[in-house]
Amino acid sequence: MSDDEFRGLRRAADYQFGGGGGTALFAGADALDVTHTSSGRPRQVHATDGRIATYGDDGRFRLGLAGGSRLLDAFDGPRHRVVVGDESEPFIREGRNAFAKFVQSADSALRPGDEALVVHEDGYLLAVGRAELPGSGMDDFETGMAVKVRQGTAD
């Protein structure tokens, strides 16, 4: 990966996830493997621990479990987190969606469409996905999908 490409990916991640997001996701740039589209755009970023992210056509990252784990380690709670308990843990690990009725707390800055880390109340990562409800109201809703899970840790 060229230095310019690396800087561009870090800048996009800092914009999407806040300051430090690019550093957290793309630490160890020498060990990262970036696949490209036929036009040369970065498409997927992989590391030895798995897929970090897919870089979408809209300029936003879709997190993989490795990327979610890196963000979880880099940022203090509740940043980017949706917290659930034991009742829904096995289902979310399997890649099923997180429903609002089971959300205990969430980052109030999450907006629908943002990448979210679904974590257990004990703090470990269960899944990564896309927020469907605003974080400020996730734990207030009794029905509806809170996070559209893309990948659970059992995958």
TrEMBL record:
GO molecular function: RNA binding
Protein name per Swiss-Prot or TrEMBL: PUA domain-containing protein
Location of the PUA domain: 80-154
Coiled coil feature spans: none
Alphabetical list of SMART domains matching this protein: PUA
